Structures are given as C-alpha cells and as structure tokens.
Amino acid sequence: MWKEYEQAISEAAKFFKDRKVKPDVAVVLGTGLGSAFIDKIQIEQTIPYNQVPYFPVSTVVSHKGQWVYGTLHKKKVLVMQGRIHYYEGYSMQQVSLGIRVMKRLGVQYLLLSNAAGNLNAKWKHGELMLLNDHINLQPDNPLRGANLPSDGPRFPELSQPYSGYLNKLLRSIAAKKKLTLHQGVYAAVMGPNLETRAEYKYLHTIGADAVGMSTVPEVLIANHTGLPCCAISVLTNDANFDRPQKVEIKEIIEVAGRAEKNLTELYSDLIKRIK
Description:
This protein is α/β, with parallel strands linked by helices. It has helices at 2-18, 35-38, 92-95, 97-104, 164-177, 197-205, 216-225, 249-273; strands spanning 25-29, 42-48, 66-72, 75-81, 109-118, 128-136, 181-188, 210-212, 229-238. β7, α6 (197-205) and β8 form a beta-alpha-beta unit. The protein has a single domain (2-273), classed as Nucleoside phosphorylase domain (Rossmann fold, 3-Layer(aba) Sandwich), CATH 3.40.50. The protein is built from 8 helices and 9 strands.
C-alpha cells in the first residue's frame, strides 16, 4: 500500500512538473467558495482532477473539482477548486494527496478554507473565523501507517498547527479592511450528516467554536511536511442548543457564497504581502 502511495505522490507531482507548474502558494477552496477568488487569478492552466494520475474525483456538487494555476500579485498560485472529503468514501491518504503533491512542487505556503457550523453564541453566521487550533474527531488519520521519512517525522509536533506568521498577517489585513475575523477552535468530524443538538452542545463544551468535516487532514500533512498553513472558516449556520432550527445544505452554500467576497479579499491581500 505505502509503495503505491509513494508512487501516487511521485506520479501526480511529475504530471504537474511536466506541465511547468511551479507554484509559490497553494490554496484549497471549500464548500460554496471559489469563483470570486479564481476571477482574481491570471489563469495559465485549468486541470480537472480526473486528468491527474491517482488523484480522486470530487463527488460533492458544490465543489468544482479542478486545479487552477496562474499568477496573482506576481506570485504563482495553485488552487484546488473543491476539496476531497473523507465522507465521500476515500481514504485519508487520498484526501490529503493534494497537499503532499503541493509540497513536492515547492509550495511555500498553504491557504485553506471551509464552511463550518458556528458554535459560539457571540458570533453570527456569515462571519469568518481564523483557525488558531483544532480538535480532531475524525475516525482516521492520514499519518497512520508507515511513515514517509523523506516528507517528515514519525511524530510531528502540533503545538502550533497554524502558522503564526500567516495568522498575524491575516489579522492585520482584516483590521485594516475593517472585516470581522474571529479567532477560534475548529472541530473536525467525519460527516456527512450535520450534527444533533446534543452533539453541538458537546462540541461547544469541549472547546470548539466551529465544526466542519474537512481541513484537519490537510493541516496534519502540512505540518508533517513542514509546509506553513493557515485556514479560515465561513460560519454558515448557528447552532442553537435550546431552540434548534432545521438547516439545509442549500442554505449553507448560499451563506458561504455571500461571505466569499470577504474571504477573497483576505486571501488575495495575504498572497500579496507574504514573502
């Protein structure tokens, strides 16, 4: 299995290298996010996931399922327009394959985004949360199994999983633009179902400010490979423990779409400012 995994990483990376893809920054766009950010890029190549060797295909309707490569603020940017989730039936190695490929291509910084349920009563849906930590409640780990010593250590250290440098820049940009950017803890669960009232209450009790079904596997691989990363959640629905309201996925996608402008501003400026 692990020989095949190494082969998958190598061949996928070679696919991009053969096409002269040399990114400085990589971005993963989550649920309901994508077009506004993509519109800012001077696009050189657009590559559907199914054209990349060994790469899984996104099965979520709201995820475009393609790589976009181009230039933004004089930096080469590689974007995953739509991510791969564990709940789609893929292994954690498949879910995080893109991050290992990014590292092999020489990416220096990784920017992640997602849609998440809001667990903090002081915040509102439609606002943004900068991840400063996470709680991993997913049932598997992309680092389980044989270690890839060429990529990183057997036991990666996670006292600061999100880059202090990138987070500081994002806070500064948000303050300058007068955009609301909360900071908090993200809980990652398997999905694909949304949470029960008791689960929302439990997640809040153990210290989570938001809950979602992604991002953490990618962050684990980024830390394993020494790739500095940051992540922003669009808070798409409010968890009311006492007076629950039915939430439709369509509504979540709509809220994410409305918040996309602010997220795009933050990440566009971040790419401009990072060195």
